[in-house]
Amino acid sequence: MATPKVCGIETEYGILLSGAEVDPITASSLIVSAYKDSSWAFASFDASHETPSRDARGVNLDDYLDPVIDSKMINTVLSNGSRYYVDHAHPEYSSPECATIRDAVLFDVAGEFILRESMNKANERLPQGVRIDLYKNNSDGKGNSYGCHENYLVDRQLPFAKLAAFITTHFVTRQVFCGSGKVGHETPTGVVDQSGFQISQRSDFFEELVGLETTMKRPIVNTRDEPHCDAQKYRRLHVIVGDANMSQFATYLKLGSTALVLSMIEDGVFPQHLLIAHPVHAIKQISRDVTMSEQVLMADGSRMTALAIQSELCAAVRGYVESSAYCGLTNDEALDVLLNWEQTLLDLSTQPQSLVKKIDWIAKLQLIDGTRKRHSLSDSDSRLKAIDLMYHSLDPKVCLATKLNLMNMFDEKAIADAAQQPPDTTRAFFRGRVVDKWFDHIVNANWDSIVFDVANRPLQKVYMNEPLKGTRELTESIINSSTSVDELLALLGQQDLPSSTL
Amino acid sequence: MGERVFKQHEQERHGTTDTEAEIQPRDHDPIKSDLDSILDQIDEVLEENAEEFVRSYVQKGGQ
User: Fold this and answer.
1) Which residue of B has its CA nearest to A390?
2) Which is it for strands A218-222 and A206-211: parallel, antiparallel or unpaired?
3) pTM for this predicted structure
4) What is the ipTM of this complex?
């Protein structure tokens, strides 16, 4: 049976400082600390036990590589259970782990809210004429890319090689609905061509099929084996191949479709004829064909369009969902994802223009095409690339995605609430609530533990190995009725909940 | 890096956009009308600044 598809998204935001010469690491620190210094609760994040170099294929490169994350940089856990920090010269928001796709979208959008608040607060403090702007995109158009990574809980029993082989088909073709669109073509070493439009921001940057890297020679399937929970039971599939979406609908379809394909693979179902012969080539081929008519070579020698591959994959998922007792999501949510996935694929093949409020690359392309035709611009005119960048701005006065009034799933209040309050149905609830209530007694926190400093006692570490425990249902009354950390720890014991299974 | 690219035009725009939108005749196709209005706003912002903005948008590679 499929593992519950607990998931979340971590996003590195583009950062642009104007009016002064400041390195991007310092500028990113200004952004994160502007939020940290406000009245919201936070605790330090402990990255000392992270092992981003542990490989799902069994090799550990930690002895050979410097840690990716500099723990001296600003690194916090917020009261909504998220992690907010500086990574690789970008401010990064990692959403709390969520048990539903809808929650995962909401908490990704809450990240935009948090970054926007940070940007506004930082700019209030900067001298006149100096300003920081943030962008939720993945490329500067000059060969530099930064990631939007999804994470999904999967069964440790599933052989990784099988998972990688099958999920590749979805990773290569799903861009037709979750690509964010880009002007120009790049390689990781620079610009190839500043003209032309492609479906995905990220596809240019994938050079390998499977691997551990995230910053160079990026693989379509990343092998980082760092579950942040019970490693005997689970993997956390770390997905680096996606674009950051401005469209909430696109994020919903990206997460929902991927969760269901993963569950199907876990349950031993995958249509073998959908394996692609040369995925690293195909991911770029599909990205560069906005007509979606080009056929890619399949492993069995046949040729299929990305839309045909997606349609057959989606049909297989429908068959799987309807015939299985549990598909990793609630039945209602799985059916909602399927309905939207099916309708979107149909619209993409028959009337793509009808998706201008839902699909980022189609929304962006209409602005690019509209401006190009209006002024008879050449394909390489800077105005077209500027539109590409402005689409992703976090400044609502500049952001073209905002001006287009894309279809929203959540109102402003729900988003503002999610910036402060954790999701109810994962361990993020416990993390967020104790950070909110006892941040001054927390030495540090990370995804699977929290260390409390209690007077006259050694440091107390609470383990959270199960992503689906520590929920509102299991812990709210304990948290609410405790007037001190001592009481909290005592009550956790009385509940007969060994701390390791919270 | 230079002055903030959009600053001046933003201020100009804020004074006028809402009024302009109100007095524009309604197009029969709301999507097209939306699009034209956004293209107008893009024109205001990008006339002079696009090249500088695109040049200044340089990022360190991340993950």
Assistant:
1) B42
2) parallel
3) 0.91
4) 0.90
